[in-house]
């Protein structure tokens, strides 16, 4: 029981400081979503475009 608690505290000290450095959403994710939306709308799944530019 003590070993488990000690392991959890050690893991918290190791992993919690790094959580703030990783964004929850990648900054390119809206671009990928828009490109996917245009692929579905146009029916062209080979030529990937973003805002009608290749």
From TrEMBL:
This is CAZy families GT83 protein. It comes from uncultured Nitrobacter sp. It comes from the Bacteria.
């Amino acid at each position: 029981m003590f070993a488990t608690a000690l392991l959890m505290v050690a893991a918290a000290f190791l992993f919690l400081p790094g959580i703030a450095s990783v964004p929850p959403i990648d900054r390119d994710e809206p671009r990928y979503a828009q490109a996917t939306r245009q692929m579905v709308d146009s029916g062209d799944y080979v030529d990937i475009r973003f805002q009608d530019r290749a």
